[in-house]
Write a structure and sequence with these properties.
Helix content is 73%, strand content 0%. With 316 residues, the chain is mostly helical. The longest helix is centred in the first third of the chain and has 31 residues.
């Protein structure tokens, strides 16, 4: 396979996953902003809307354009701004451009799904700022990304094309889950609010909803929400599809598939296995002893290094 074809498949998956994750962050911010105790004051940490900017790692570009993280500013920047290459609109347009360049590597159903999403996006060039209108847009983005993901799983041949597509998906998903966890623990909870208190409960509940994991949490733990158990679910539980451990189990699998297809392994396979082994051998008590913020920050750094290794090994 040509490296430019592999690169387009890899980034198609990343941009579509990023669009879905950004929509989920906006949904979580909207839910949190509706809580009666969610407003911040002097000396308090960032608001729910600013937390969405921080979770995307876009505070620099955002504050270069806007002075304040209001609901209107954040929704416009994360959903529609052409000044933000990671906005949902930008992700869908760049994803569609990548798909168009490798149409022969995709199935007809996949191309039709992403092209239809791009066409329907024109209906949402801007949305009103009422909650129903915002939720309609968020649901459209999630449906579009989930449809493409399901079609890839059900219609693509299990070749190197499929492996590059899935690697892009899981690399982006791991980054998003790590950032959501870090922002919740390090930013959202006010300093005078107790861990495990009422506000903390509703914030964790909203975070779990944003990754479609609230029901899964109750199936696994069968008790009320506790921060360390939420972290355990989203970091170490491989049966949770958006957990860091699950993402890396799949990254190892598909990178090993590439090694078999091409007859050799490299730095990408080694780094993925090392991070997967770290996650499999770490307890949640050890994570909190180290510091959740420090652990997640280190993970995000390692995840970025894996992306660089994949690029150097296969995409240039």
């Amino acid at each position: 396979m040509l490296s430019r074809t592999a690169e387009s498949l890899f980034w198609l998956a990343r941009y579509m996953e990023r669009a879905e994750n950004t929509a989920r962050l906006l949904e979580a911010a909207a839910r949190l902003s509706a809580l009666p105790s969610s407003s911040t004051g002097p000396g308090q940490p960032a608001s729910e809307w600013e937390s969405a900017i921080l979770a995307c790692g876009l505070e620099g570009p955002f504050y270069a354009i806007h002075e304040e993280a209001t609901a209107r500013n954040v929704v416009d920047f994360l959903a529609f701004s052409l000044d933000n290459p990671s906005s949902i609109r930008s992700c869908l347009e760049i994803g569609r451009a990548n798909a168009r360049s490798v149409r022969t590597a995709l199935t007809l159903e996949m191309w039709e799904a992403i092209n239809s999403a791009w066409l329907e996006l024109k209906r949402f060039r801007t949305v009103g700022h009422s909650r129903p209108e915002l939720m309609e847009f968020i649901n459209f983005v999630k449906r579009s990304a989930l449809l493409l993901d399901g079609l890839a799983y059900r219609t693509m041949l299990r070749t190197d094309s499929f492996a590059f597509y899935r690697i892009g998906t899981y690399l982006e998903r791991a980054d998003a889950t790590g950032r959501i966890l870090d922002v919740k623990y390090h930013v959202l909870l006010p300093k005078d609010a107790p861990v495990g208190g009422g506000l903390d409960y509703f914030q964790w509940s909203s975070i779990l909803r944003s990754v479609s994991a609230l029901t899964a949490y109750h199936w696994v733990y069968k008790e009320s929400l506790k921060p360390w158990l939420v972290a355990d679910l989203l970091i170490l539980r491989e049966e949770m599809p958006r957990s860091l451990a699950s993402c890396y189990a799949n990254l190892v699998r598909y990178l090993d598939d590439l090694a078999r297809y091409y007859g050799r392994q490299g730095q990408a396979q080694r780094k993925a296995r090392d991070t997967h082994a770290l996650l499999r051998n770490r307890s949640i008590d050890a994570v909190f002893s180290e510091g959740l913020h420090e652990f997640v920050e280190g993970f995000i750094g390692e995840n970025n290094l894996l992306g660089n290794a994949i690029t150097e090994q296969y995409l240039v």
